[in-house]
Design goal:
With 389 residues, the chain is of the alpha/beta class. 28% of the residues lie in helices and 27% in strands. It has a five-stranded parallel beta sheet with strand order 5-2-1-9-20. A four-stranded parallel beta sheet has the order 13-12-11-17, covered by helices on one side. It has a three-stranded antiparallel beta sheet with strand order 6-7-8, with no helix packed on it. The relative contact order is 0.16.
Length: 389
Amino acid sequence: MSAHRTHPTQRTRRSHCITVLGAGFAGLSAIRELRRRDSEVEITLVAPRAELHYLPGIIWIPSGLRRREDLIIPLDKFLQRMKVRFHAGEVTGLRDKGRTVLTSSGELSNDGLVIATGGRFIKKLPGIEHAITPCEGIAAAERIRDRLQALQGGRIAVGFAGNPNEPAAMRGGPMFEFLFGIDQQLRREGRRGRFDLTFFSPAREPGNRLGPKAVQHLLGEMARRGIATHLGHKMVRLEADKVVTEGGEIGADLILFMPGMTGNAWFDATELPRSPGGLVQADEHCRVPGWERVVVAGDSGSFPGPDWLPKQAHMADLQAVAAAANLLGDLRGEHANATFEVELACIVDSLDRGTLIWRTPRRNWLLPSSPVFHWVKRSFERRYLQRYR
């Protein structure tokens, strides 16, 4: 069998090497877009494990609708299809303006870098160890499931706060879903009458980033379900059996609390430009100012836009597409200035129903609670995960 001959110019051409940090929504969407646009570019993914943890699905773990194995997707087949090299390790820093990535398992050089390592929750509130922070991962949702099973009755407090230096760095939507989901689960089990549920937030209008109609709807839904509210009071501390605010105390046998978000700890070991809230500064094209061929997408970045710019998987996907397009353009010496749509799209689920909320700079829609949207959310999950199986 004769050897395949390559034209001399092809033999001497070196493919660009791009390193993607993070195996979440932004990182994987960036990989898909990079490969769609360029079949030859070398891509290396850096993450602790070659797995996607589908965190939007953890709202269904307490009720048993989802299990751990349903939400952890091994990426071996996806990475093979995408021709991506995997480097197992934790990112610890950068050198040479991003051209060298430092990890717990060695150094990597690159021609272009995508930062998509997500965010980190601010754990400065005294006594925060007494609360479960649901969006920290699957294990946190399993703790909620186990605590609910063990409780025969009592008081449950669910709430969230933000990053005062970064209005967009919060994740409140899932907390409404945990709240309504727990209420519905207890009703199904015939136990709701033995529990008091309270929703708390320092904000007077929690969920206002979803739009004015959403605030009215969410608070109305709480009233309809008999869920008490404690709003507009600065938080002081958490204790084993209570939430303490400047406006009073909330007794609680189980506390679910989502603090605001900030940047990853490894950012501190770099000279990356940071926002007041601790995230990586980005422009409207997802480029990191002053750092050549370095882009950021998802929860890691602080982007220009309205104060309701969401931190959610959908937004991370949109940012990743723009980041990938612009990074490839920069590597090729082309004029590339792709931007991302600012779009909030979510379904606030309550186990058997859901409310669709959609917001852009021009429109804000809310379609009332319906079983249809619950099944739409489940269908979207199945289709989204299929691309990585």
